């Protein structure tokens, strides 16, 4: 994203000022509802064994997926992955050809019957301070509910434009991981992807772990009627309980949750 610096001499806003500004917008500004779509990009760090080293340059460097997030004036958001044309037993990351050789990478087990958790829907409720994630795992539905993290955002002096809207950069460190967010005060809803929020505006660009994971908005539709309901189908667990279950099943190797590299010549 190209950023235009509009206010290099503006002082950084302290944490308490940011909190006060967010609360002001939440209670006194006309909130909006609508839908934003994001492209999520994850950098891949995959090394081939020595006998396949000549194919290393053909391995894709990143995987991209499309996500859609609905939000309403009650400060609730529901985000889900937009279904892609994936194979039933795996998702293609990408393919390359060189000298008559084709490499196709597939991460098996993204369907609901595998040992890879598939996030069906994630709901954030700012007023309640809670999130609910609906996962499908090993053919069963799970509901993970927890408290939204309290993120200590710091506003920087950087401003710019994204999708023809004014954006402001905020930074934070969450569990020792760096997070950069570009939010727009033109849409005063304190929401964003992956339970990141609490800023005085909708997050349009989110960078996690120095850009290893990125969300970039590519379209925004406002003033549509959006009804968001919290998922109720599934076994209720805490995040810690669910993480322990997934770890246990992965160690047992319950299903074909393996990354495969298919080479054709």
Summarize it.
This protein is mainly β and 265 residues long. It is 11% helix and 45% strand.
Using brief descriptors, characterize the structure shown.
265 residues; mainly beta; outer membrane lipoprotein receptor (LolB), chain A; twelve-stranded mixed β-sheet; disordered N terminus
Describe this structure in words.
There is one protein chain. The protein has 265 residues and is mainly β. It has a single domain (15-264), classed as Lipoprotein localisation LolA/LolB/LppX (outer membrane lipoprotein receptor (LolB), chain A). The protein is 11% helix and 45% strand. It has helices spanning 15-28, 239-252, and strands at residues 34-43, 62-71, 76-81, 90-98, 101-108, 118-125, 130-137, 140-147, 154-162, 165-174, 177-184, 202-208, 213-222, 235-237, 259-264. The strands form two sheets. It has a twelve-stranded mixed sheet, with helices on one face. A three-stranded antiparallel sheet has the order 4-5-15, with no helix packed on it. Strand 7 and strand 8 (140-147) form a beta hairpin. 24% of the residues are buried. Residues 2-17, 85-91, 107-113 and 254-265 have low confidence and may be disordered.
């Amino acid at each position: 994203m190209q950023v235009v610096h509009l206010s290099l001499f503006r002082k950084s806003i302290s944490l308490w000022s940011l909190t006060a500004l967010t609360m002001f917008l939440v209670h006194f500004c006309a909130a909006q509802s609508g839908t934003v779509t994001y492209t999520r990009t994850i950098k891949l760090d995959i090394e081939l064994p020595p006998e396949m080293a000549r194919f290393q340059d053909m391995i894709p460097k990143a995987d991209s997926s499309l996500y859609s997030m609905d939000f309403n004036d009650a400060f609730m958001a529901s985000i889900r992955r937009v279904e892609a044309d994936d194979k039933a037993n795996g998702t293609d990351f990408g393919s390359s050809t060189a000298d008559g050789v084709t490499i196709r990478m597939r991460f098996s087990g993204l369907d609901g019957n595998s040992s890879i958790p598939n996030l069906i829907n994630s709901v954030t409720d700012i007023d309640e301070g809670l999130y609910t994630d609906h996962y499908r795992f090993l053919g069963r539905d799970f509901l993970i509910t927890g408290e939204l993290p309290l993120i200590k955002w710091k506003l920087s002096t950087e401003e710019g434009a994204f999708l023809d809207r004014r954006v402001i950069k905020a930074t934070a460190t969450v569990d020792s991981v760096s997070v950069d967010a570009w939010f727009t005060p033109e849409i005063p809803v304190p929401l964003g992807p992956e339970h990141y929020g609490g800023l005085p505006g909708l997050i349009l660009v989110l960078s996690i772990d120095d850009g290893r994971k990125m969300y970039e908005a590519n379209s925004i539709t406002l003033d549509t009627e959006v009804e968001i309901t919290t998922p109720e189908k599934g076994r209720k667990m805490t995040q810690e309980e669910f993480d322990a279950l997934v770890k246990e099943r992965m160690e047992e190797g319950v299903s074909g949750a393996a990354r495969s590299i298919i080479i054709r010549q």
